[in-house]
């Protein structure tokens, strides 16, 4: 009997960084994309399959524990073992802390932190049974330092770093590698919103604001999502298990 094919679950896999990660990981194994917009997911899977790789998708909100179970079941239905989990789904909203909406704070924590927990909890039993598994928690440079006007986002990304460190200590002896990846600004919708907000607050043109954001990286550029995807693939290659628990910083020296 053939060995089951390995698979990677990617949350927030329909667009942006998640889509780039799903495309990259599909070159190595089957990919299960999870997201809230079926049109994006269907398009991403079609793109992956056009390239000759295998993928499927699950539509749902990461805050729902049932969605995590469905993603694992989707892999099992195809005879795939979930070898890698990439918790990428996340949201970020900013504003002065003293006037920040408490419900929005809860939503950010629920999606960014609790959503990751739901998928880790769903995938860990199988990984532990097989004695191997890679878990990538998509944090941020904002998970390593403080920033003005994004306290909720900062707190959620710091939490993911702590979560990965705890997983590394708890299950390192059982073959589990857990790495928080911490990129700086990555090209995509979230960075575009940051640029637009900066332009409005400071009376800049969009081009001026984009340049200021880019210059926060010592390389004076906004990172393409494909670079983050390569970092994820490196972690999931299993070549350096001692990375477990250590933030993998993609900041160009920042």
Secondary-structure map:
Elements: E1 5-11, H1 16-25, E2 30-35, H2 38-50, E3 55-59, H3 65-77, E4 80-87, H4 102-130, E5 133-138, H5 151-171, E6 176-183, H6 189-202, H7 206-214, H8 225-236, E7 248-250
Parallel strand pairs: 1-2, 1-4, 2-3, 4-5, 5-6, 6-7
Helix pairs in contact: 1-8, 3-4, 4-5, 6-7
The count of domains is: 2
Mean pLDDT: 96
In N-to-C order, the SSE pattern is EHEHEHEHEHEHHHE
**So how many helices?**
8
Q: How are the strands of the biggest sheet laid out side by side?
A: 3-2-1-4-5-6-7
Describe this structure in words.
By secondary structure, the protein is an alpha/beta fold. It folds into two domains: 5-185 and 225-237, NAD(P)-binding Rossmann-like Domain (Rossmann fold, 3-Layer(aba) Sandwich); 188-221, no CATH class. 48% of the residues lie in helices and 17% in strands. The protein has eight helices and seven strands. It has helices at residues 16-25, 38-50, 65-77, 102-130, 151-171, 189-202, 206-214, 225-236, and strands spanning 5-11, 30-35, 55-59, 80-87, 133-138, 176-183, 248-250. It has a seven-stranded parallel sheet with strand order 3-2-1-4-5-6-7, with helices on both faces. Helix 1 crosses helix 8 (225-236), helix 4 (102-130) runs parallel beside helix 5 (151-171) and helix 6 (189-202) packs across helix 7 (206-214). The longest helix has 29 residues, at 102-130. The radius of gyration is 18 Å and the shape is globular.
């Amino acid at each position: 009997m053939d060995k089951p094919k390995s698979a990677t679950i990617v949350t927030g896999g329909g667009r942006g960084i998640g889509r780039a990660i799903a495309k990259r990981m599909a070159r190595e194994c089957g990919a299960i994309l999870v997201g809230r917009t079926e049109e994006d997911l269907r398009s991403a899977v079609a793109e992956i399959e056009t390239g000759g790789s295998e993928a499927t998708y699950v539509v749902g909100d990461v805050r729902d524990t049932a969605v995590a179970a469905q993603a694992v079941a989707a892999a099992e239905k195809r005879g795939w073992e979930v070898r890698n989990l990439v918790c990428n789904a996340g949201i970020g909203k900013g504003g002065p802390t003293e006037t920040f909406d408490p419900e929005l704070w809860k939503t950010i924590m629920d999606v960014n932190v609790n959503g990751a927990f739901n998928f880790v909890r769903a995938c860990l039993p199988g990984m532990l049974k097989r004695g191997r598994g890679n878990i990538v928690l998509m944090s941020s440079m904002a998970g390593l330092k403080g920033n003005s006007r994004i306290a909720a986002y900062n707190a959620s990304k710091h939490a993911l770093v702590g979560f990965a460190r705890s997983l590394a200590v708890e299950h390192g002896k059982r073959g589990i590698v857990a790495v928080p990846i911490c990129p700086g600004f990555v090209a995509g919708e979230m960075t575009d919103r940051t640029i637009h907000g900066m332009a409005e607050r400071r009376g800049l043109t969009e081009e001026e604001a984009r340049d200021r954001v880019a210059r926060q990286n010592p390389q004076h550029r906004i990172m393409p999502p494909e670079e983050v995807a390569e970092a994820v693939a490196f972690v999931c290659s299993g070549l350096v298990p001692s990375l477990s628990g250590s933030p993998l910083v993609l900041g160009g020296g920042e």
